[in-house]
Amino acid sequence: MSHSIDYTAPQPLRPSLPPDAAALPTAHPPSSVRPSRWPARLDLLQSLSGLLLALFLIAHMAFVSTILISPQAFYTVARFFEGAWLLGRPYPVLVSLVAASIMALLMLHAWLAMRKFPAGFRQYRAFIAHKNRLQHGDTSLWWLQVWTGFLLFFLASIHLYDMLSQPELIGPYASADRVWSGGLWPLYLLLLFSVELHGGIGLYRLAVKWGLFGGKTRARLHLARHAFSAFFITLGLVTLLAYIDLGREHAPRAGERYQPPSTSASHHH
Ligand code: HEM
Questions:
Q1: pLDDT in tens, 232-261
Q2: Residue located nearest, by CA, to atom 27 of ligand 1
Q3: Under CATH, which architecture does the 37-253 domain have?
């Protein structure tokens, strides 16, 4: 029996390991090697963390867009998450805890996703050639997801650290000041497009991979994906414009906090 190596298959180059440890996948009789369950477990974990992030994002957009109703509406939402209604006084650290959990989830998700990134120039070139040859929609979508995901490593981290380190600076004026006077609107613009495209594709892939949403046809799922991204990008843009508007208006008094009508009324008494 010859221990021949299939030189056409990519061979892991691990000179520090004994030759039979990993580099000879064809040398072992199949019966003696039980395939590891870990790749499947990690895939499931990646899907779950992605689903949780997508659900968070939907809720997040709902909360942030209350600025479109009124500054007072957004103020109420922001104070709600500080728990004063339950604990008697506001605890912004509760928002920090949520931000830290989302950060951890994002890191887990990104770490799991890195397994699928092309490693090095040869794999990169091979994938591009494969993608161009296939001209297959889902393969091109996957590539868009790789790139938006890569961007999100950076864009999402900046925003999350902001929320984690200064949770008390969330409110109609403080947020509008951050967006406009603080110069964060270009970050939010990039973040918005990256995350809504990434999330839309991600949910589509979950549906295809695990048959979520009742096994709809691909055409229906494509429609749903476009609807998802278009809806949240539109809502996000309108919301961002509202923060920019308010921020420009409030720029001369940047830093001043919003006072709800009841509180400012009681000041005058
Ligand atoms: C606990 C975590 C988070 C909190 C508390 C939070 C809170 C906020 C708040 C208050 C704003 C309004 C602007 C501001 O105050 O600066 C905002 C905007 C935004 N956030 Fe978050 N965020 C969190 C996580 C995330 C994550 C994980 C993403 C995406 C990966 C994200 C994407 C965005 C985007 C795109 C905007 C701009 C809104 C728009 O264009 O309408 N946020 N966020």
A1: 999 999 999 999 999 999 999 999 999 998
A2: 156
A3: Up-down Bundle (1.20)
Given a contact cutoff of 8 angstroms between Cβ atoms, the answer to whether 233 and 193 are in contact is yes
Closest Cα to atom 19 of ligand 1: 188
Q: How much is the pTM?
A: 0.86
- Parse the chain into domains and list their residue ranges: 37-253
> Cβ(230)–Cβ(165) under 8 Å?
no
d(Cα 211, Cα 20) in Å, to the nearest integer? 39
What residues contact residue 200 under an 8 Å CB cut-off, 6+ apart? 225, 226, 228, 229, 232
Cβ of 170 closer than 6 Å to ligand 1, yes or no, is yes
- Ligand 1 pocket: which of 63, 153, 163, 168 to mutate (most atoms within 8 A of CB): 163
Ligand 1 center–CA 159 separation, angstroms: 7
The model's pLDDT over 25-61, given as tens digits with 9 standing for 90+, comes to 555 556 668 899 999 999 999 999 999 999 999 999 9
